[in-house]
């Protein structure tokens, strides 16, 4: 299997560290609904997990839920997202995190995304965060200010490597709001102190003062606790590269003296009708908005998998409609392959898996599927490879539908046309269209 490694900026042959492929995915901050752009990234990483499994690897995956308030900006300034959500809704920060965390997981499951072995809530790792800061301090990587405990980026000589950061440029650009307390421009808080009188609902005592973890810390801590460094694959959005993942790498090095991950995969953004997803443009679509327009989570997943995780994608409802129709077409082909015991073209599943194994090229795999004849057995494998519920979502012809179809065949043999028509209408009510051909009746799903 080959994947593009952000660390080397090259396509590399995947070579696991141990028997089990350890994967970590940066999860959502649960202060609001996740939009379809967020969910697209989890669809890509689901394909990664499914492709690894189809290639015979065992996978252990951890996903975090950021339910500790952190700041709106990537840096150490700005408003706290969870506090903002709580103020907006007149709820406590804990209620906000609980509500949106649950909503996220419901949608995650509706998209048939492979369940990670560990779903780690940041608030469950606060003690471990403190121990991690202790360890980094012991190893000489931090310093304390009035404001918190900071990571001294000058102590990690490879700090700028991962994101090819221009630290000199950063210094020039940051001169205006460069805090006197920071020793280096890229230094960041691993722990923040809460000043007397400062409103911050989530707080824990550490170093004899109330405070809370810096927002990059939880990923390093959770990886340290649940997987151990180095892990095989770390995934996230392309926007995580310059700060969040750079800081994760620095923290994990200070914590363990080891690299964090062997491979880094980053997905690109999607735009909506050519525009960035933003509240002001009113295009922050949720899966529930798509459902209102008649599109299922699987139609959306089909749309995502038609493209590539590294490309910028433009979402339109026309393209979603096309994805829906393609999925319907595949389901009809499955029905026919089942009824007529159709044989596959030679090596077609291997070619499909080969395309997916080539840096997750599902678009190419879909083109192979469109251009090939497939047996029901191969469709089953394809359904498992993409998790599109092609078979499970179908009306259950094996039971009631099949019985009706048999009954209709018998009625036609007895020239009982009224009964035959009656059964045909009944099947139509179940979304099954029956067509009579020279070879007998075949059925397909209603368009
Ligand atoms: Zn992270």
Description:
- The protein is of the alpha/beta class and 447 residues long.
- The protein is built from 15 helices and 16 strands.
- The protein has a 5-stranded parallel sheet, sandwiched between helices.
- A hairpin with a 4-residue loop joins β1 and β2.
- The protein is elongated.
- The two termini are 37 Å apart.
Number of helices: 15
Terminal Cα span = 37 Å
Total beta strand runs: 16
What is the overall silhouette?
A: elongated
Instruction: List the bound ligands.
Output: zinc ion
Mean pLDDT score: 91
Roughly how many Å is the radius of gyration? 26 Å
Structural class, by secondary structure, is alpha/beta
Spans where pLDDT lies below 50 across 5 or more residues: none
For the largest beta-sheet, the strand count, sense and barrel status come to: 5 strands, parallel
List keywords for this structure.
447 residues, alpha/beta, five-stranded antiparallel β-sheet, 15 helices, 43% helix, elongated, binds zinc ion
What's the short story on this structure?
This protein has 15 helices and 16 strands.
List the helices and strands and how they pair.
Blueprint: E1 2-5, E2 10-13, E3 20-25, H1 36-54, E4 58-65, H2 81-89, H3 93-110, E5 118-121, H4 126-138, E6 142-144, E7 148-151, H5 167-174, E8 188-193, E9 204-206, E10 209-213, H6 217-226, E11 231-237, H7 241-256, E12 261-267, E13 270-272, H8 287-292, H9 297-305, E14 313-315, H10 317-339, H11 348-356, H12 362-370, H13 376-386, H14 397-413, H15 417-429, E15 432-437, E16 440-445
Helix pairs in contact: 1-9, 2-3, 4-6, 6-7, 9-10, 11-12, 11-13, 14-15
Bound molecules: zinc ion.
Zinc ion is lined by residues 26, 219, 244, 248.
